[in-house]
Amino acid sequence: MSPTFASFLTFLRYAVQAQADNDARARALWLEAASHLQPMDGVSIDRLMLDLLAQQDTAQAVALVETVAQLEPHSAAASMRAGYALQMANRHGDALAPYRHALSLDPAFPQLRKNLAIALNLTGGDVEEERQLLEAAVAADPSDFDLWINLMSARRACFDLDGALAAARRAVELDADSAVAHGNLAQALKEAQQWDEAQTHAAAACARAPDNASLQTSLGVLHLLRGNYADGWLAHEARWNDPASMLTSGRPQFGKPQWRGESLEGKTLLVWGEQGMGDVLQFCRFIPLLAQRVHREGGHIVWNSFPQMGALLPRSFGMHVDVYSAAREIDALPPFDFELPLVSAPLMLGTRVDSIPSGVPYLHADDARRNAWRARLADEKRLKVGLAWTGSLNHGRNRFRRVGTQRYAQAFRDIEGVAAYSLQPGATTDVEAARAAGLPIADFTNEWRDFDDTAAFVSELDLVISVCTSAAHLASALGQRTWVLLDVNPYWTWMTDRRDSPWYPTATLYRQREFAQWQPVMDEVARDLRALAAEPRVNDAG
After folding, report:
1. Where are the beta strands (DSSP E) in 19-167?
2. 336/338 Cα distance (integer angstroms)
3. Helix/strand/coil (H, E, C) string of 247-310?
4. Is 516 exposed, middle or buried (0-12, 13-18, 19+ CB in 10 A)?
5. What is the mean pLDDT of the chain?
6. Burial status of residue 65 (CB atoms within 10 A of its CB: 0-12, 13-18, 19 or more)
7. Which of 109, 225, 247, 501 would bridge 492 by S-S if both were Cys, CB 3.0 to 4.6 A apart?
């Protein structure tokens, strides 16, 4: 930063105060003083802002442009500049107001609609507003490659698949050598269930950017989705370097190497949980096989997982490992020589679709807690059905995965012989909306302290109906009858086309046939639920 910058900014701030005081003479004097230190024209202010940003002095850059914007409230350029600096400082929410002010002054200002759309996207703003901004921007400049890339996502978020495909294909036409364009098109093609073409473009993207972890991860996930585990597991290892993955906090710094198959004789292997709770519930099945290999080689195995699991994991698998830990800090872990993320276990074990350890139940709830719930629910003679209607609100695909209580209410409220129970903690508003819509859902979720409590409750149900979320994995791992509702481009575990799952033999999969079309799915589920509820049942008293 120039030694005169502090004085320059101070003079500008005095000018702002004079302007607020309606003192035109003082404003002019302060601006004249500032102009002796730094040119005041727009190009020079832009250059100074960019220099400060390049020096990573975002606070001073923002202070500069916000002050100038106050001095020039009728300048679209000044407000645009302020929004840009705030975005570069990762203050995307704060950038919205100056961008919108600039838009009110000059809707055609270069890059303004694009930047505002990006800020909306990064702050979870209105997707329809984002789409409209991008549509107007691309109409004004149809040769802007980035606009077509962003428009694909915006149209998809607004459930316009044909539009999303058209935008993605246009980006490839504009730059056929762009890895980003091919990866973008692959994403749109997956929503259209055009799997072969999606894989072609995903592979083309990786060939053009072999060091791009996000593209490598996407291709790996597509391989897994299609049952190609040989290539899928290996490519999936790129997830640790993928900024778009769920692993936003990065890989823990263990200070020890990841196990790649080295001899474990006299060594200790740490296996640790990663990603979401559903992943732990799904992949914990590999612990016995891993432990068998480690012990066969003369080593020891330590398993660390999330405290939220309670005693569920050590009860189910504790006999296989030497130490189970729920420690949150690396320093609290027992000594070890190698580490392995739990989701990398099938890579090390050479797992294929036909060798998935699929026996259930492999998780076992606490008997005392099960008995307690059985007693509380004993008077309910109807079919006891647990419901989960949304995944994590922060998940990038939840917009497409979630079904919502309104659809559940419409589909299930007139079915006799069914008692519905929420499996969605913290969803009181949704439960009340379902009740108001005619589906009385009982809600005991506030009594659950951890997944062990949830497992005990779920074990006493007759059926679980769930979208792709941890409830589906938990119920299936417990061996419960589980109906999983899937969008057209599901999490890779559920594969494509199949009605069953090689991971979960008690699961039945209900799939969207067309993008964003839930009604046929709900009609099918309602038909099967009505038939199941009408079947004679013997209440299990023990």
Report:
1. none
2. 6
3. CCCCCCCCCCCECCCCCCCCCEEEEECCCCHHHHHHHHHHHHHHHHHHHHCCCEEEEECCHHHC
4. middle
5. 96
6. buried
7. 225
